[in-house]
Design a protein that fits this description.
The chain is an alpha/beta fold. The protein has helices at about 5-30, 60-80, 195-200, 210, 240-260, 275-285, 315-320, 345-350, 370-375, 380-385, 420-430; strands spanning about 90-100, 105-115, 125-130, 140-145, 175, 180, 200-205, 265-275, 290-295, 355-360, 405-410. The strands form two sheets. The protein has a nine-stranded mixed beta sheet, with helices on both faces. Strands 5-6 form a two-stranded antiparallel sheet. Bound molecules: beta-D-galactopyranuronic acid (GTR).
């Protein structure tokens, strides 16, 4: 660990000096959560097709060479933080079995090493992969991060039980921040592995905590600390935090897919739920090797428009999860209208690749309408690039999926990933990625 203790003293003094003012300010303005559509403030979205200096973007070339890099830089600087170029990655296939899941699948477990001789404490990332045995090679694949370890997504006893730090959870069999044997398969409801294989896709997953533990105290103890300058003890205001580190891991998984001849690295779909859906969008925005990007109930800081301030708000998310976004994002607490971007522009960064946004009716915290409007708000960029954009201009009804290049559905039920969601993602992939 390269934390310089001497450096922490001035920060402590500074924090002590600032604390009373910060506490007073927080007391003055309680965080208000709005669930009333009539109370959504008037707002104007920044136009994805107008440069910061006011120049209109009128052709695909200008989007690709000028506006797209500009928008990406704005998200890096003000929302998610800059991600460093990977310095060292080595893959070790530590498990390979062609008779997994009653002979239906080939299972691989691959460890990515991020330091040459890191010793036991070095951060590593384990990719769990299932490929359908009866599908032609190379096989297209869905990849996504999971919340409680690779062993939580299926009961297959051969999956290595994660030994990494985890958020406490009785339901997921986590005791003293570590997974136990009881944890196996506890997240399987969100990962219908056999159904995905039956439709001819592979599926790969990584525990997000391998990259960055999901807590403000330890978040830099995965890959982030590896990229600190000498003496640096925290990311700068425009540097990556947890969401950036998680997205980095997804890109490293694609690095592996590129060298595994059984996997079709030109047909990789990235899927994520909730905080990990924010991450799949950020990964897809930065890394154009993802052929399809899926956001499942990603909400604030994901697919939902920040300016609507419906459900979770920028201030609320930065207060509850100070380690997710870069520190510059705090400037927009209660000042969403001053953001140089909104989340429709994040979705536009996927263009012209297919992107799918999914909401759930009861998931008001994530603002389903705001998720739909952000997807719709990317339409002008998708059309400029010659695609059909989003086929509707009004929010569709419950379980009426839209399957244009920008896809969308809202299903009944709560904040979750269901078989309904997965089958729509596969329908969408059948149509756009594997026609
Ligand atoms: C909530 C958070 C949301 C969403 C969710 C999740 O507590 O406010 O932004 O990310 O967690 O990841 O399940």
């Amino acid at each position: 660990m390269n934390r310089g203790n001497a450096l922490t003293i001035p920060f402590v003094v500074l924090a002590a000096a600032l604390l009373p003012a910060a506490v007073a300010a927080a007391e003055e303005a309680p965080i208000v959560i709005n669930y009333d559509e009539d109370q959504v403030p008037d707002y104007t979205l920044p136009d994805p097709l107008v440069m910061e200096d006011g120049t209109p973007v009128e052709d695909a070339e200008t989007w690709q060479s000028q506006r797209r890099p500009e928008v990406l830089r704005l998200f890096e600087t003000y929302v998610y933080g800059r991600t460093p170029e990977p310095q060292y990655v080595r893959f070790e296939v530590f498990d390979e079995a062609d008779d997994a899941l009653d002979g239906k699948a080939t299972r691989k477990q691959v460890r990515a090493h991020f330091v040459e001789d890191g010793g036991e404490d070095a951060p590593t990332m384990d990719i769990l992969i299932y490929l359908p045995n009866d599908a032609e090679r190379p096989v297209p694949i869905f990849v996504g991060l999971n919340f409680y370890g690779n062993h939580s997504i299926h009961e297959d006893p051969a999956i290595l039980l994660s030994e990494r730090w985890m958020r406490p959870s009785d339901a997921f069999g986590v005791v003293d921040n570590r997974a136990t044997e009881d944890s196996r398969g506890t997240g399987a409801g969100r990962w219908p592995v056999e159904q995905i294989l039956a439709r001819g896709y592979g599926v790969a997953t990584i525990y997000c905590g391998d990259l960055s533990p999901d807590t403000a105290e330890l978040f830099d103890q995965g890959v982030i600390r590896l990229y600190y300058r000498e003496g640096q003890t925290a990311p700068e205001a425009d540097e990556w935090r947890t969401i950036g580190a998680w997205a980095f891991g997804l890109s490293r998984a694609v690095d592996y897919f590129e060298i595994d001849e059984e996997i079709d690295h030109a047909r990789v779909a990235v899927m994520g739920h909730s905080r990990l859906g924010k991450t799949s969008l950020w990964a897809g925005a930065q890394d154009e090797r993802f052929a399809l990007v899926i956001s499942n109930n990603s909400g604030c800081g994901g697919a939902a428009l920040s300016r609507r301030r419906f459900g979770e708000t920028v201030r609320r998310i930065n207060t509850s999860f100070p380690h997710w976004f870069c520190d510059n994002f705090d400037q927009f607490n209660d000042r969403e209208d001053e953001l140089p971007v909104d989340q429709h522009m994040l979705i536009a960064l996927m263009a012209p690749r297919p992107v799918y946004v999914a909401s759930a009716e009861e998931d008001r915290w994530a603002d389903p309408r705001g998720e739909f409007l952000a997807a719709l708000g990317a339409d002008s960029v998708y059309r400029l690039l010659g695609t059909d954009g989003m086929a509707v201009d009004e929010m569709p009804g419950i379980e009426e999926p839209v399957m244009s290049t920008i896809g969308y559905h809202i299903r009944s039920g709560r904040h979750d990933v269901t078989d309904y969601d997965w089958h729509r993602y596969m329908d969408f992939a059948d149509k756009h990625v594997r026609p």
